[in-house]
Design goal:
Shape: globular
Strand order of the largest sheet: 1-2-3
Number of helices: 5
Distance between the termini: 44 Å
Order of helices and strands: HEEEHHHH
Structural class: alpha+beta
Largest sheet: 3 strands, antiparallel
Length: about 140
Protein backbone atom coordinates (compact mmCIF):
# COMPACT_ATOMS: atom_id res chain seq x y z
CA UNK A 1 0.00 0.00 0.00
CA UNK A 2 1.46 3.38 -0.93
CA UNK A 3 1.52 6.32 1.46
CA UNK A 4 -1.30 8.25 -0.22
CA UNK A 5 -3.62 5.23 0.04
CA UNK A 6 -2.68 4.77 3.69
CA UNK A 7 -3.32 8.47 4.34
CA UNK A 8 -6.74 8.28 2.65
CA UNK A 9 -7.66 5.09 4.49
CA UNK A 10 -6.74 6.51 7.92
CA UNK A 11 -8.61 9.78 7.25
CA UNK A 12 -11.73 7.94 6.11
CA UNK A 13 -11.58 5.49 9.03
CA UNK A 14 -11.35 8.28 11.61
CA UNK A 15 -13.95 10.41 9.83
CA UNK A 16 -16.45 7.54 10.21
CA UNK A 17 -15.46 6.78 13.82
CA UNK A 18 -18.19 7.82 16.24
CA UNK A 19 -17.04 6.56 19.66
CA UNK A 20 -15.69 10.00 20.61
CA UNK A 21 -18.22 12.04 18.61
CA UNK A 22 -20.59 12.63 21.49
CA UNK A 23 -21.32 14.80 24.51
CA UNK A 24 -19.78 14.23 27.93
CA UNK A 25 -21.99 14.34 30.99
CA UNK A 26 -20.23 16.29 33.72
CA UNK A 27 -17.52 17.77 31.51
CA UNK A 28 -15.14 20.21 33.19
CA UNK A 29 -13.90 21.96 30.05
CA UNK A 30 -15.83 22.95 26.93
CA UNK A 31 -15.01 25.15 23.97
CA UNK A 32 -16.39 25.75 20.49
CA UNK A 33 -14.08 26.18 17.53
CA UNK A 34 -15.13 27.51 14.16
CA UNK A 35 -13.30 27.87 10.86
CA UNK A 36 -15.22 30.52 8.91
CA UNK A 37 -13.18 29.95 5.74
CA UNK A 38 -14.64 26.47 5.22
CA UNK A 39 -17.48 26.16 7.73
CA UNK A 40 -15.94 23.56 10.04
CA UNK A 41 -17.58 23.89 13.46
CA UNK A 42 -16.59 21.77 16.44
CA UNK A 43 -17.25 21.68 20.15
CA UNK A 44 -14.71 19.89 22.31
CA UNK A 45 -15.59 18.67 25.80
CA UNK A 46 -13.15 17.27 28.32
CA UNK A 47 -13.53 15.80 31.76
CA UNK A 48 -10.35 16.45 33.71
CA UNK A 49 -9.90 14.96 37.16
CA UNK A 50 -6.77 15.32 39.27
CA UNK A 51 -4.88 16.71 36.29
CA UNK A 52 -5.75 13.78 33.99
CA UNK A 53 -7.99 13.89 30.92
CA UNK A 54 -10.32 11.03 31.86
CA UNK A 55 -12.74 11.65 28.99
CA UNK A 56 -12.49 13.65 25.78
CA UNK A 57 -15.09 14.03 23.05
CA UNK A 58 -16.20 16.30 20.23
CA UNK A 59 -19.32 17.21 18.32
CA UNK A 60 -19.94 19.26 15.27
CA UNK A 61 -19.59 19.13 11.56
CA UNK A 62 -16.90 19.70 9.03
CA UNK A 63 -14.80 18.17 6.34
CA UNK A 64 -13.30 14.72 6.67
CA UNK A 65 -9.91 16.18 7.68
CA UNK A 66 -11.31 18.20 10.60
CA UNK A 67 -13.41 15.30 11.84
CA UNK A 68 -10.62 12.73 11.45
CA UNK A 69 -8.16 15.02 13.20
CA UNK A 70 -10.60 15.47 16.11
CA UNK A 71 -11.01 11.70 16.34
CA UNK A 72 -7.24 11.15 16.36
CA UNK A 73 -6.84 13.84 19.01
CA UNK A 74 -9.39 12.22 21.34
CA UNK A 75 -7.75 8.82 20.94
CA UNK A 76 -4.27 10.20 21.59
CA UNK A 77 -4.99 12.52 24.51
CA UNK A 78 -7.52 10.58 26.59
CA UNK A 79 -5.77 9.30 29.71
CA UNK A 80 -2.91 11.78 29.46
CA UNK A 81 -2.09 14.38 32.08
CA UNK A 82 -2.94 17.96 31.15
CA UNK A 83 0.78 18.68 30.87
CA UNK A 84 1.34 15.72 28.53
CA UNK A 85 -1.67 16.72 26.43
CA UNK A 86 -0.51 20.33 26.13
CA UNK A 87 2.93 19.14 25.03
CA UNK A 88 1.39 16.84 22.40
CA UNK A 89 -0.78 19.70 21.17
CA UNK A 90 2.36 21.87 20.92
CA UNK A 91 4.14 19.15 18.92
CA UNK A 92 1.12 18.63 16.65
CA UNK A 93 0.89 22.35 15.88
CA UNK A 94 4.67 22.62 15.40
CA UNK A 95 4.42 19.82 12.84
CA UNK A 96 2.24 22.06 10.66
CA UNK A 97 4.58 25.01 11.06
CA UNK A 98 7.39 22.67 9.94
CA UNK A 99 9.23 23.36 13.17
CA UNK A 100 9.42 19.58 13.70
CA UNK A 101 10.00 17.49 10.59
CA UNK A 102 11.50 14.27 11.94
CA UNK A 103 8.83 11.80 10.83
CA UNK A 104 10.13 8.97 13.02
CA UNK A 105 9.84 11.22 16.07
CA UNK A 106 6.39 12.49 15.02
CA UNK A 107 5.12 8.95 14.41
CA UNK A 108 6.46 7.85 17.79
CA UNK A 109 4.93 10.77 19.69
CA UNK A 110 1.74 11.50 17.74
CA UNK A 111 0.90 7.99 16.54
CA UNK A 112 -1.70 8.11 13.73
CA UNK A 113 -2.05 11.89 13.97
CA UNK A 114 1.41 12.17 12.41
CA UNK A 115 -0.08 11.09 9.10
CA UNK A 116 -1.68 14.53 8.88
CA UNK A 117 1.77 16.08 8.42
CA UNK A 118 1.30 16.04 4.65
CA UNK A 119 -1.48 18.59 5.00
CA UNK A 120 1.15 21.20 5.84
CA UNK A 121 1.65 21.39 2.06
CA UNK A 122 -2.01 22.43 1.64
CA UNK A 123 -2.38 25.76 3.49
CA UNK A 124 -6.15 25.92 3.00
CA UNK A 125 -6.53 22.55 4.78
CA UNK A 126 -4.19 23.20 7.72
CA UNK A 127 -6.93 25.11 9.57
CA UNK A 128 -9.16 22.05 9.19
CA UNK A 129 -6.56 19.73 10.69
CA UNK A 130 -5.68 21.93 13.67
CA UNK A 131 -9.18 23.15 14.61
CA UNK A 132 -9.95 20.56 17.31
CA UNK A 133 -6.44 20.80 18.76
CA UNK A 134 -6.60 24.61 19.03
CA UNK A 135 -10.08 24.32 20.52
CA UNK A 136 -8.97 21.90 23.24
CA UNK A 137 -5.94 24.06 24.01
CA UNK A 138 -8.22 27.08 24.40
CA UNK A 139 -10.58 25.14 26.69
CA UNK A 140 -7.67 24.12 28.93
CA UNK A 141 -6.04 27.57 28.86
CA UNK A 142 -9.28 29.24 29.95
CA UNK A 143 -9.42 27.15 33.14
CA UNK A 144 -5.76 27.65 34.09
Amino acid sequence: MDLSNLYTEVILEHNKETKNRREIQGYTHKERGHNPSCGDDITVEAKIENGIIVDLAYNGHGCSISQASASMMTDLLTGKTVEEAMELIRIFLAMFKREIQDMDYLEDVLDEASILQGISNLPARVKCAVLAWHTLKEAIDQKN
